[in-house]
Amino acid sequence: xxxxxxxxxxxxxxxxxxxFTSCSSDDDEWNWEKEGSAIEMKETRxxxxxxxxxxxxxxxxxxxxxxxxxxxxxxIFMTQNHIALGDVAQDIxxxxxxxxxxxxxxxxxxxxxxxxxxKADVSVSSDLGDPRYGVIDNGNLYVTCYGGFVARYDTKDLxxxxxxxVGDNPEYIVKxxxxxxxxxxxxxxxxxxxxxxxxxxxxxxxxxxxxxPDRIISVNGKLFVQGYGADWSYPWGLLxxxxxxxxxxxxxxxxxxxxxxxYLCNSVTDWSTYETTSTxxxxxxxxxxxxxxxxxxxxxxxTSSSVYGMSVNEKTGDIYVLTTDFTTAGHLYxxxxxxxxxxxxxxxxxxPRKVVFLD
Length: 359
What we know:
By secondary structure, the chain is mainly β. It is built from three helices and 28 strands. The strands form seven sheets. Strands 3-2-1-28 form a four-stranded antiparallel beta sheet. A four-stranded antiparallel beta sheet has the order 4-5-6-7, with no helix packed on it. A four-stranded antiparallel beta sheet has the order 8-9-10-11, with no helix packed on it.
């Protein structure tokens, strides 16, 4: 195959400077060819989901080796499957050796193997609305859909198995304590988090938070919610489901978590000058203490860029900050868990949203 020959030459060059070497005796259990990959891949692989821009069919997937930060310079989804990923990539989830990608604009869900080769896909019913974000529990993929539903799919074949009505335009979803929790944005007209019992999966109960909630994350059994707020100030805070209370703790536009720490960023743009300031800080979930920036020797460009997403490698604790200018290829900044800057590099697409890690 020509693409295999071309990829071998390309990655051969990268190997000299960035450590893409052929599989050694230490990698005997990993065989990228048996996985169906068109290019040589390291076992320590990561994928960046690039959202693309609406109605341009330009979402794609970046592959890099998280042990060395050596990157493959092209859309790995196209390389592996010879088709475009589609319009507006919303979420990417790893479950064992499988990868799931939720495409909002294309109204499609993909199941890939561990090298990005397509195993199954399903079109989401227009009755459910555009799919947004997902979470996996016990062989089921739960997906929020803009028609006001949480839909359930079997992870084996992506067969649709049911749905529960929640508030309009639900966004992020997490699982915690036998329940699913998703934000109900209502495109600015709602202020609730919906809770669904996973076992019964029949109805939703609700908790009030800020106006236009967006993100929700579970850290050490505690739920934190972030949204746009009535004034688009990006408030975030703690949702206590036992007491039914929400306490605002600060402002942030992106976050990630590792163990008992929330890593937060607030990107604020002055639209009269188009100048952006990104401020980073942390929150200790156990002590409830806010701390100043966790970043060390960060490139100056990062603090003046729009941060579009943050991810953490659970295997190392390393933090990855994703930036965008909304029109050209995005950028990734890699920091050690202690905040030490390691490397930055461009992604293969517009609006990088999330990084997932395999080994």
